[in-house]
Amino acid sequence: MCGIVGAAGTRNIVPVLVEGLRRLEYRGYDSCGVAVHQDGALRRTRSTARVAELDAQVGSEHVSGLTGIAHTRWATHGAPAVHNAHPHFSSGPTAADGSQRPARVALVHNGIIENHEQLRAQLQARGYVFMSQTDTEVIAHLVDSLYEGDLFEAVRQATLQLHGAYAIAVICRDEPHRVVGARQGSPLVMGVGVGEREGEMFLASDAMALAGVTDQIAYLEEGDVVDLQRGRHWIVARDGAAHVRVERPVRTVHAHTGAAELGPYRHYMQKEIFEQPRAISDTLEGVEAFVPELFGRNAARSFAEIDSVLVLACGTSYYAGCTAKYWLESIAQIPTQVEVASEYRYRDSVPNPRTLVVTITQSGETADTLAALKHARSLGMKHTLTICNVATSAMVRECEHAYVTRAGVEIGVASTKAFTTQLAGLFLLTLTLAKLRGRLDAEAEAQHLRSLRHLPAALQAVLALEPQIIAWSQAFAAKENALFLGRGLHYPVALEGALKLKEISYIHAEAYPAGELKHGPLALVTSAMPVVTVAPNDALVEKLKSNMQEVRARGGELYVCADADTHIEASEGVHVIRMPEHYGALSPILHVVPLQLLAYHTACARGTDVDKPRNLAKSVTVE
């Protein structure tokens, strides 16, 4: 989602700011902008186009400076428009003659300010004029209203009045070598310049934005306010005294750039689909047995104290959790509940202190999931574990235990390799808990290890089906609606397939347990409604065949991903892709891949922006 970059440098830092935004493009945005201290004044450039166009603008307008901030915005308050784009300025209250003073404060912001309407009314009463519909402009004016010659103190005082989530970076016309940042509920990191950039200081919402600039990173904690000046920094807690410094360790972080080479692929999503064999192999590297130590040094003690599992996640990660519920209850025989993170904290639930709370998140910065985790802990559930793709993320730091997947950077907004590596991590958790509970003998453990080691090769065989899926996509490209069906363990796979199709092709798609067709969805089935069916050779396959007949009897067109030994044959109105092999409990990891490819090639045929679908963002850092 929204991205922040800031710098107090010893040379023109505009190229650093723009390159930082470019590295954050994969997160999704609809406007971008830069503000710098130049020739004794604040100067900014904003655009609703891509970062490349912003780069061209700052070049043609000769924008440069030693201190500055930059931002990519994903619209929440106010439409995607230049006047709503960050950075926002404050010039102080309107002068007596009605004129506006030169801008004194420039600010960028990630998150949502919940009391912005109240603050806006107060500031308007004092003569501040608002030029946007954003909640962010409120913070800029608030900082200005509190400014008495010390930007750091003005920001610190402003944060005491803010309710909600924020990460901010601020510069001031009157203090040309200073950047001040603050965070609460939204990530912010500090970078320390080394080598050629020694003495320079940086801020960013993600360490990736600073890749190639510095690898010396400190992660700011909740409530921190940071003062960056050349060669020095100062951090205090939001509600602490301004002179009481707190230390945040600076560590070496090798952040991978988001500007990876596409190679022979048309889009990052396609590249990431084809990276899944390697991603799974890397995620499972070194796994020789199912032991608690896979999840952290003290995981054995926590696992011994639990009697249930609560999974908290959003979107694709939620569907990974739904899949894990089947595994955990059937293999480990441990009661499991899966909750949509954005709903969990707002309902009355019955806490159990012997529950293992498992969060699932690609970025580790998902605001809803972080808030749900904190809510679960506040209810007395202290045993926490995350399945996450970013070792340095807030979620990994917040949870007691972690299994870090090794999918690598995922640039496409629609998650693919992060999903399958999450499933791999969740399967390891299932088998570890099963073993500890006496549900997994040595023979079964050895068989599961063999299956996991064979997964990369099995995925390669599924990827070889791409030409057949391209043929399907030509038919789907002309449709506006689709149904996805699955049963049991593969119902969450159908949900994920429908999500992928709607995310990037903009075709309305819904998923149902196949047995639910006759309870309503069958009314939608006509020859114009393609019905995608996930058909593994499991205990429910005969039931599934009956559900497929219900579709054909209404003239529905079936597109079936079937295991070879299901005896489902292609015929009029029934299109079949044969999966290379049946893979038992791990089948969801294989069966989701054709659905990813179907969504991808359908989107290509419809000409949509595959990697950056409209209205969506990669790392959802607002509620």
Protein model, in words:
- 34% of the residues lie in helices and 23% in strands.
- The protein starts with a strand and ends in a 17-residue tail after the last helix.
- 55% of the residues are buried.
- The chain has an eight-stranded antiparallel sheet with strand order 3-2-4-1-10-9-11-14, with helices on one face. It has a six-stranded antiparallel sheet with strand order 5-6-7-8-12-13.
- With 623 residues, it is an alpha/beta fold.
- The radius of gyration is 26 Å and the shape is globular.
- The protein is built from 18 helices and 24 strands.
- A hairpin with a 2-residue loop joins strand 12 and strand 13.
- Helix 1 packs antiparallel against helix 2 and helix 3 (116-125) packs across helix 4.
Index terms:
six-stranded antiparallel beta sheet; globular; alpha/beta; 623 residues; eight-stranded antiparallel beta sheet; 24 strands
